Backbone:
């Protein structure tokens, strides 16, 4: 507690604009005064310190404190503007004693003290009334020295509260009323205007046609980066068949043949391995949908804060209704988009197109550099050289032909997956834009109007909250206080 009090006091007296009253009991030596010590620490020259010696009536008659009353301790002058001795106001002895009666008792005690011969010459400089007069003079002079900066600070704060009060002020909806409709109150038009401002800002934020500042990336560019950086890289991290050994791959190939021995390349085995790797792209694609949803939701919230911040202050219920409805709409589109993205992966699983010209080109490339095995009845080539990044774990008991065949499957699966991956990372962002971003752009106005344009709905949303009313009353009271302070500063400058 002692330290807390000391910190509190120091916090006040460190202010260079503060006047310091260093209070000390008159019967004690000034050299050990903690009040004087603290004041000298923050005001070494004593230019804003006044030393007040209290309880003069408790000083022993044998002691002469003239030196202390003169502002000296041990022969050295105390660093302060002036030292003033006072007798404290006595406590009432009777419940009926008034403040005026106590003041008269205090005056009489001070007169008695300073009528002593040793203190008679100091009488005009000490006493409670002299302290009050001196403090008033010092305060006025101190205030005049600070007036230029004080006026500047007061004017700045006054402008802040004037602007705040203007924002918190009630709205005259009649100025929004449609002139062609005599029954229009202006409330509907105000709501339409708020929705239109939000939608314009939201759509322009997505499409990059609005300046949102340069502190960080905002708006649609964040979605674009998600598609062409994060999602792109995450798909690149998928390395086909890297999670199984060569023995496991060979078992998958053989199991696909069933009871019939396989001599040449088995399309069922190839498709089984390919589908396994394509399926791995589903989770990354669904994650991309969720991240895109989060980015668009953030864009909507930032657009609301930028475009209808006046609505947020005056009618927070209407502001929140707009934000919540957009969030609900986005959640609906999230479900639909995730379903369509899943379909986008499924179509690659449903049809493995080995006649794809890019895959055929890859086959021709391998044919030119690797030995061939040809199926006699079809003329189709069977490639046998293993991929240089072949999977680990040689199975026991494989012949050289079987090992070459296993490596062939792995190489072809990786070629086909690479081609499919390029298609997927081009297609999935288009699905997201189509079923989420563009749906929101095209339908958000109608959605908000349908949900918020009914009179029963917007009437309740335009009811002023008690929180806003309380803030306005507080701002009004503070503004009046600052205006009074400005007037006082003007009067002091003239005086």
Residues:
């Amino acid at each position: 507690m002692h330290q807390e009090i000391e910190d509190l006091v120091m916090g006040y007296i460190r202010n260079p604009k503060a006047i310091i009253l260093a209070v000390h009991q008159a019967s004690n030596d000034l050299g050990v005064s903690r009040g004087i010590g603290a004041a000298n620490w923050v005001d070494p020259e004593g230019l804003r310190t006044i030393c007040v010696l209290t309880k003069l009536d408790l000083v022993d008659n044998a002691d002469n404190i003239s030196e202390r009353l003169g502002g000296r301790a041990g022969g050295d002058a105390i660093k302060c503007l002036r030292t003033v001795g006072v007798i404290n106001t006595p406590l009432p002895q009777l419940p009926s004693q008034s403040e005026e009666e106590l003041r008269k008792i205090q005056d009489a005690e001070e007169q008695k003290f300073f009528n002593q011969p040793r203190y008679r010459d100091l009488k005009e400089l000490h006493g409670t009334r002299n302290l009050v007069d001196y403090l008033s003079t010092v305060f006025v002079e101190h205030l005049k020295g600070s007036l230029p900066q004080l006026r500047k600070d007061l004017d700045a704060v006054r402008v802040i509260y004037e602007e705040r009060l203007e924002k918190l002020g009630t709205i005259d909806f009649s100025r929004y009323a449609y002139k062609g409709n005599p029954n229009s109150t202006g409330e509907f038009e105000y709501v339409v205007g708020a929705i239109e401002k939000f939608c314009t800002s939201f759509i322009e934020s997505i499409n990059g046609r609005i300046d949102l500042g340069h502190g960080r990336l905002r708006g649609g560019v964040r979605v674009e980066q998600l598609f062409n950086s994060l999602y792109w890289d995450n798909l690149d991290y998928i390395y086909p068949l890297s999670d199984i050994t060569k023995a496991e791959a060979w078992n998958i190939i053989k199991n696909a043949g069933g009871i019939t021995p396989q001599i040449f390349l088995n399309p069922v085995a190839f498709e089984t391995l390919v589908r396994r790797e394509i399926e791995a792209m589903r989770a990354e694609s669904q994650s991309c949908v969720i991240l895109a949803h989060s980015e668009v939701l953030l864009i909507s919230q930032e657009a609301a804060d930028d475009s209808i911040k006046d609505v947020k202050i005056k009618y927070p219920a209407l502001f929140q209704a707009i934000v919540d409805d957009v969030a609900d709409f986005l959640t609906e589109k999230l479900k639909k988009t995730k379903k369509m993205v899943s379909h986008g992966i499924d179509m690659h699983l449903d049809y493995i197109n080995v006649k794809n010209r890019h895959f055929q080109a890859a086959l021709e490339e391998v044919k030119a550099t690797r030995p061939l095995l040809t199926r006699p009845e079809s003329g189709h080539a069977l490639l046998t050289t293993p991929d240089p990044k072949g999977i680990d774990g040689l199975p026991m008991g494989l012949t050289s032909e079987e090992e070459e065949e296993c490596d062939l499957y792995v190489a072809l699966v990786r070629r086909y997956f690479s081609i499919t991956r390029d298609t997927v990372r081009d297609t999935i962002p288009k699905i997201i834009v189509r079923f989420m971003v563009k749906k929101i752009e095209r339908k958000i106005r109608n959605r908000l109007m349908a949900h918020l344009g009914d009179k029963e709905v917007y009437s309740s949303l335009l009811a002023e909250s008690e929180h806003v009313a309380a803030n306005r009353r507080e701002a009004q009271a503070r503004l009046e206080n600052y205006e009074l302070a400005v007037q006082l500063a003007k009067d002091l400058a003239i005086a």
